[in-house]
């Protein structure tokens, strides 16, 4: 099996020892991704942009997503992201889970991890 590793250039990838995405076994596995911005909506959009870039490098797109997990320190903020997620995934919504938990830094309000089909 061929494994392709995709980096985003984040300094944390080297510091922590991970990569943004791994293409293996017919899937693109995207690491948990936080976004920048002041609001949960800004961070959600930014994280999805970083994820979309990693998927493009793998030859896939957000429409190939089959599974997504959202991590939020404050579950009450998740509803503000719903329109963004609905617009992002459109007519191809993935299976999804939302987990309330602490993130690596209190400034982060959402982290998104997903799996997409890899190109054949």
From TrEMBL:
What's one Pfam family the UniProt record gives for this protein? Ribonuc_L-PSP
Q: Entry's Gene3D superfamilies?
A: RutC-like
Q: Which InterPro entries match?
A: RutC-like_sf, YjgF/YER057c/UK114
Q: Which domain of life is it from?
A: Bacteria
Query: Which CDD domains does the entry link to?
Result: YjgF_YER057c_UK114_like_6 (cd06154)
Q: Which SUPFAM superfamilies match?
A: YjgF-like
**Protein name (database record):** RidA family protein
Report the source organism.
Thalassococcus profundi
Taxonomic lineage from the root: Bacteria, Pseudomonadati, Pseudomonadota, Alphaproteobacteria, Rhodobacterales
């Amino acid at each position: 099996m061929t494994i392709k590793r995709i980096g985003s250039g984040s300094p944390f990838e080297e510091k922590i020892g991970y990569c943004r995405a791994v293409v293996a076994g017919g899937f693109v596995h995207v690491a948990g991704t936080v976004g920048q911005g002041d609001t949960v909506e800004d961070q959600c959009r930014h994280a999805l942009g970083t994820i979309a870039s990693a998927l493009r490098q793998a030859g896939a797109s957000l429409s190939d997503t089959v599974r997504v997990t959202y991590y939020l320190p404050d579950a009450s903020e998740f509803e503000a992201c719903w329109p963004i997620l609905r617009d992002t995934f459109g007519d191809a919504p993935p299976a999804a889970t939302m987990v309330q938990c602490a993130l690596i830094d209190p400034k982060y309000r959402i982290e998104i991890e997903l799996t997409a089909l890899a190109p054949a």
